[in-house]
Amino acid sequence: MKRLFATTSILCLAAGAASAEGTLSVYHWFEYMPQELVDKFTAETGIAVTIDTYDSNEAMLASLKAGKLGQYDVAVPADFMVAIMAGEGMLDTFTPEEMTNLGNIAPQWLDVPFDPGRKSSIPYQWGSTSFSVNRDVYQGDISSLGIIFNPPDELKGKINVLDSQNEVLILGSLYLGIPQCTTDREQLKALSDMLVEAKQHWASFGSDTAKDVLVSGDAAAGMIYNGFSAKARAEGANVEYSYPREGHVLWMDNVVLLKDAPNRDNAIKFMNFLLEPENAAAVTNYAAYTSGVTGVEPFLDEAIRTSPENNPPADAAPGVFAQVCDDATQQLYDAIWINLKK
Amino acid sequence: MAGVGSDSGASAETTYRSARVPLLLPTWLMIGVFLVLPVALMAVYSFLTKEMRGGVIWDFSLAAYDQFFVHRGLFGDEPPTLEWTYISVFGRSIIQAAIATVLCLLIGFPTAWFIATRPPETRGVWLFLVTVPYWVNLLIRTVSLRFLIRENGPLNDALMGAGVISEPLALINTDFAVQLGLFYSYLPFMVLPIYAAVERYNFTWSEAAADLYATRWVTLREIVLPIVRPGIVAGCLLVFIPSLGAFLAPNLLGGAKNFMIGSLIEEQFKKSLGNWPFGAAVSMILMSLVLILLMIYARSAARQEAR
Fold first, then answer.
1. How is A130-192 classified by DSSP, letter by letter?
2. Is B270–A62 a contact, with Cβ atoms under 8 angstroms apart?
3. Which residue of A325, B33, B188, B253 has the lowest C-beta tally within 10 Å?
4. Where does CATH 1.10.3720.10 sit in chain B?
């Protein structure tokens, strides 16, 4: 009995020591943060970190809406989702005095439309979405989104498309030269018809499998994120990532300070930590995208720093961010997506 | 079937009468908390107004059911007609599930028969073997099947190596792959109930039929099938119902090109469509379909009993 009591009190003491520095609850994408970096944060600050993961922006939003807000300190939504969450009143703000490393953010990412002046979010990683082609199968020109939407014979029936409404509809709009969030009937009809016509040439829809199908050869071409394509190449697939002339989708994942964060101070510490160039570079080396922090170059792996996926050719067409459509317009796009997959 | 409970006699009924409520309480709690509450919640949500990108507004609305059944064109201003989009999704899922059920029955019945006719001491081993794959998670089994049947996977390599085919079979991302996946996932649910029925079958009845000059076919049709029928029906329901709502096999083996009921519902909650009332309404419609199916079965079973 005495021994049990002794053990219990030691456990209590240990727990007390850990909670003296506190804890941090992170809601994050799967496989997006190297464990070594989490350990480093804990070693530097004594803050114990717990991470829950999600696999889509919408799943994260749904779970926060369903009552998880107030349990997490930070989450990592993409650009358009930052705007949506801000609109829903789910974000807290910080001051420049608190976020001492705010100056490390690369100038072009400091004042962004989805969070003007960076009051609730800091950059995590950014990248692009277009497509990759297996060069063993197809050697022709891949500078157009027509590879996906009007494919050459060699690629017909061997194309994987992201199972993601936003990306498919925006790339389709770019291909047709239609603006996002349009309400023009002719344009929406044309987009819907083009997608239904293109679908017969597609083998599959899949987002988390987008890399695997290229590596295994199930697909010879596929819509994909640039870092994911770099990983496919690293795993031995002879794939080339295209920056098509019609444009590509740009996205940026951001660490946001959630409303009612139980450990707000620790969240700020964590965000400042992630803005250190060395730590931002560690994420980039792991995820193969690009950080939004200046001064990361000395810490980057050579292969990542010079990868064609992360370094668009100088004459590449500019990328576009996803816009948040108003509710009525969004319903039209939802209907096009349902019609495509019915 | 219905006779089993009433045979137990009045003595047991009186023995436990005083303890009935406390004994049943855990069951009632289980059913109440884990079945009635969630289903009631779903029913309520299906009549609420959707909040864009997930969530509900507490205003009564029939919009979800309207979306399911009524078509008004992309812009909502055409004269209303019957909406075929979701009915065709249901139709596709029902056909897939039916084919998977038939496949399971064709393979499952002989398997169950084989096991039930082994000596009692070896039956356990065979049953054990049927359940072994179930120690592995369904997701992993489905992904493994994907690896097996892919264009340059082991199956095609072996067939081409043996000279059976010259071009790889296009199996992956087809409806057949989905049916194969469903069949593979749910086969034991067919084997086990049929086994339980066949095991109770008295083989002297077959001998008696043979003595009366019944052919093997007639014996199977007139004697065996009616007796093991409850096992077959139970097996078919156990395969058909989960196949109807499956989304792993359609997504991983079928390429997710078309919505199945399961993926249609998933998309309403976890992905961009974010329409909770509609997802709840589709679930309610699916559940009603299954209930109707079960009721038809129960009535025909009762009629069978009465005969």
1. EEEEETTT--S---STHHHHS--GGGTT-EEE-S-HHHHHHHHHHHHTPPTT---HHHHHHHH
2. yes
3. B33
4. 84-274
